[in-house]
Design a protein that fits this description.
191 residues, alpha+beta, Ubiquitin-like (UB roll), Translation Initiation Factor IF3, four-stranded mixed β-sheet, two-stranded antiparallel sheet, 5 helices, 6 strands, rod-shaped
């Protein structure tokens, strides 16, 4: 292929190299498995640069969903639990998944399935308007966990526009540099 994408047909390697050199471009093998191999005359440096720019744009548009973790215990008091639920709601509003973990110690293991499941069920019901359960509560060793994911897309944080200082109606300048100029004593030439 030529520099403009036109087909040049089957050409020997030496002849293709000569054409590339005469145009001050590179000869790049595009499809080596084809019979005969397909080569293209192009500016390889420019091609690599444009390829990296496209990858950067793709990465910029990509949204990263994080998994935040909230840990509670079976004896966590209701007020503390409400604070944790507020944090979960904030994470979900930001578009992140939340892993809720109930950790058991000592004798708490004897009634772990009952109390832990009740606590996770309560937390999930409190955030049901913002989320859906991605993985049901399950026991893993001394912990019981569930993962909730946001139902809505991540909300874009709207940055408030900065408002400038109002001009003073008394005729004074608003910028510090202008104020400094005004405060300087007049020289004899200006009088």
């Amino acid at each position: 292929m030529g520099a403009d994408g036109e087909q040049l047909g089957i050409v020997s390697t030496e002849e293709a190299m000569q054409k590339a050199r005469s145009l001050d471009l590179d000869l790049v093998e595009v499809a080596s498995n084809a019979d005969p191999p397909v080569c293209r005359i192009m500016d390889y440096g420019k091609f690599k640069y444009m390829q990296s720019k496209r990858e950067q744009e793709a990465r910029k548009k990509q949204t990263v969903i994080q998994v935040k973790e909230i840990k509670v215990r079976p004896k966590t008091d209701s007020h503390d639990l409400n604070v944790k639920i507020r944090h979960i709601r904030k994470f979900l509003e930001d578009g992140d998944k939340v892993k809720v973990t109930v950790r058991f110690r000592g004798r708490e293991m004897s009634y772990a399935s009952q109390s832990g499941f009740e606590m996770l069920k309560h937390i999930v019901s409190e955030v049901a308007d913002l989320s859906k359960v991605e993985s049901a509560p399950k026991m893993e060793g001394r912990t019981m966990m569930t993962i909730v994911a946001p139902t809505a897309q991540k909300r874009k944080a709207v940055k408030p526009e900065k408002t400038g200082r109002r001009e003073r109606s008394e005729g004074r300048a608003s910028s510090p540099a202008d104020r400094k100029q005004e405060s300087l004593p007049e020289t004899q030439e200006e009088r």
